[in-house]
Amino acid sequence: MDNTALINDFTGEIHSCTDLAGLYNIKVKYLGKKGVITDLNKQLSAIPADERPAAGAEINKLRLAFEELFNTKQTELKSAERNAKLANECIDVTMPAAPAPLGHLHPVYQIYDEIVDIFGAMGFSVATGPEAELDLYNFTMLNMPKGHPARDMQDTFYISEDVVLRTHTSPVQVRTMLNKKPPVRIIAPGKVYRSDHDSTHSPMFHQVEGLLVDKNISLSDLKGTLQLFVHLMFGDDIPTRFRSSYFPFTEPSMEVDMGCVICKGAGCRVCKSSGWLEIGGSGMVAPEVLAAVGIDSLVYSGFAFGMGMERIAMLKYGIDDLRLFFENRLEFIEQF
Ligand code: DAH
After folding, report:
1. 98/106 Cα distance (integer angstroms)
2. Is the CB–ligand 1 distance for residue 73 below 6 Å?
3. How confident is the model over 218-275, as pLDDT tens digits?
4. In terms of DSSP bridges, do strands 204-214 and 301-308 run parallel, antiparallel, or are they unpaired?
5. CB burial class (10 A; 0-12, 13-18, 19+) of residue 223?
6. CA of 308 to the centre of ligand 1 (A)
7. What are phi and psi of 235, to 5 degrees?
8. Which residues face 303 on adjacent strands?
9. Could you read off the pLDDT of 175-214 as tens digits, one per residue?
10. Which atom of ligand 1 lies nearest, measured to the CA of 283?
């Protein structure tokens, strides 16, 4: 029995086979129930009986050889398939990640941080108070008892008879002095609320309060402190000016102006040709306020100030419309 042609056919087909599906077809064709080897076995009956065992053994050898070839090829193809799959699925951990959109500080809060840094360097720590505040702290203990005409200057959101949305950060002065004996040196940045809404007023805005109480504190300390603040925030070439004014909680009281950052004093639209821009109120803490928190005004004196943060941000960044701060348009916010 010459099987050379059969062997050549089988090995040829196995060698040129490149995928497992093809390989299984070959197995069926040669080793399957109706395959070539089975056919050969069937033909055994046509062979003389004495030659049959040898021929049968021959066929068996052939089947074993085919099976071995098949198994080797199968292992080879399986591992190739697996490698290809692995190569396909592999993750390149060195690949740069898709950039995730990063959050960004609102310009008012960039100014907030700068203010905290500047006063922090002068030894002021940050104090806070609630935005829903007692009428007592927001007004009464700041020398504005019920019925005081100065209450009308601040359009107040009342939550109840005794609780308001704080109209300024000044109640933090009261809270601080109730809790700590002098020396006191704090700033109180935060949100304040007034029932007022137009192109230059927002119902919510930000102020920063300052308070320093100690022995021998005078008006010149106040002026020097605010002058240094303006220099550090806007530049050494920007002057300050103090105009006498009135606040119930300070005596004397002064409005704080700084030289116009836009025209440097020459006169422009922003400073209404005056060369000066108002940035806040200030004064020496009124004896009535000190008395209300139990501080002896014959021993201690102090100064206080309050500034609008949106105002400072507008002047610092050259923004001419207050409303831009509250519209939350990313095209605007992302510029800072
Ligand atoms: N609280 C005042 C306001 O909102 C601003 C202010 C003026 C605060 C004078 C002060 C001050 O501490 O001394 O209009």
Report:
1. 24
2. no
3. 999 999 999 999 999 999 999 999 999 999 999 999 999 999 998 888 888 888 999 9
4. antiparallel
5. middle
6. 10
7. 125, 150
8. 212, 284
9. 999 999 999 999 999 999 999 888 788 999 999 999 999 9
10. 13
